[in-house]
Amino acid sequence: MVAVPAPGSPPFFPILSLFHAAAEGELSVNGASPELFCRLLVSRPPRRTNAPIGSFCAREPAPDGAASAGLSPRTNDRTMPMMRPIAKLVVTGALLSGSVVATHASADDVPISEEARSHFAAGVALLQDPKAPRYEEAYREFKSAYASSPSYRILGNLGLCAMKIERDTEAINAYETYLAQAGLELTPGEREQIERDLATLKAGLVSVTVSSDPPGALIIDVRTPVQGLDVRNVYGQVLSPLSLGIRRGHHVITARLAGYLDQQWEFDANDPALPPHVFTMVKPAERETIVARERPIPTSAYILGGAALALAAGGAVVGVLALNKHAEYERENDGVNPSGAQSIRSTGLVLNAATDALLGSAVVAVGAAAYLIATRATIERRIAQQSPFLPLDVGPLLGPRTVGGAAAWRF
């Protein structure tokens, strides 16, 4: 049973022990439920502006045999036993309202900014998601809260989230600092629990240092567990060798740098330490440039060729008419109707002249087109290498006895 202090008495700061009582259903505040207890803490009037930060911590009963084996009951990795569902989440209200003051505040603790309180509240809300705790997003919120106000009181939550998303080096650092600075705020049971978690994290930690040449690559680590989804962690651009603490298992680390091909390192992390690995970044091979020489047929040659065909067709039609008139003249030129025969002859002569003019013009047009084709300029253009199944150049093929097309391939 945890009792609320009487009005006017100094406030207290419940931390991890509240979870154990809540998990067993033993926590009450003058008969109120644990949820009501959290609301009472948050609703109390603020007593000072820069109250120390509160702490959120989710604890659950350890699986059978976990304590004797020295393993943490909170993780779900193959190097750590499966956690049980969290019975209840207990959140102290100091950070959210600035109303609760620790009895044993550290002299090294820092004032808590409103920005830190806002990020902390967001992290707590993410951990209390009705579907499932959202550790990765909560980790970012607690990280931002700690960056705004580097109070050790944030590190318990930050260490928990870092452990859940397998950023184990950060989890170890956060927990160690939290244990060192929390002092009497932690009960012996709470301290023992965190120390067991630390021992488990350190036992399964594999150290490796990675870098890239040239530096600045983005490092992405993906671990494939025996069960469940892949665990993916992205680290910022590596300007200097980066020391990572990863869990045992199968990993694929990818280095990504703009203008270079992605480089991967696939390995099984079984030993406590691995030799340093340098990602040698390689630029993509430049596509081979091919110089193609072409002699495109000018548009005027196509125009003249079309005109020559039209003139030749017209000359053929008019020539047929002239032949018909010649035959008619032969029939009428029998001396019976000299004037009629003379008229037919005159028409035939006109048709003959028109035929000659049309056919002559067609010949001139063909000659001009042939000249333009024969004297056309050579043009060079650079093209990137393409599929060998596609031709490099396609064009018409004209010759004294050949009319068709031509295509060129390069193998």
Give keywords.
11 helices; 411 residues; four-stranded antiparallel β-sheet; rod-shaped
Short précis:
This protein is of the alpha+beta class. Helices cover 40% and strands 19% of the residues.
Q: What is the number of helical segments per DSSP (H or I, 4+ residues)?
A: 11
User: Mind summarizing the main beta sheet?
Assistant: 4 strands, antiparallel
What is the tally of beta strands? 13
Summing up helix and strand content along with how strands pair, one would put the structural category as alpha+beta
Q: Numbering strands along the chain, what is their spatial order in the largest sheet?
A: 5-4-7-8
Morphology call: rod-shaped
Helix content: 40-55%
Radius of gyration (CA) equals: 45 Å
Overall pLDDT score:
74
Order of helices and strands: HHEHEHHHHHHEEEEEEEEHHEEE
N-end to C-end Cα span: 86 Å
Low-confidence stretches: 1-94, 97-107
Q: What does this entry look like structurally?
A:
This protein is an alpha+beta fold and 411 residues long. Helix content is 40%, strand content 19%. It is built from 11 helices and 13 strands. The chain has helices at 17-23, 34-43, 66-69, 94-97, 114-127, 135-148, 155-164, 168-182, 188-203, 299-332, 338-374, and strands at residues 56-57, 90-91, 205-213, 217-224, 231-238, 242-247, 249-256, 263-269, 277-280, 289-294, 379-384, 393-398, 403-408. The strands form 5 sheets. Strands 5-4-7-8 form a 4-stranded antiparallel β-sheet, with no helix packed on it. A hairpin with a 6-residue loop joins strand 7 (249-256) and strand 8. Helix 8 runs antiparallel to helix 9. The protein is rod-shaped. It starts with 16 loop residues before the first helix and ends with a strand. Residues 1-94 and 97-107 have low confidence and may be disordered.
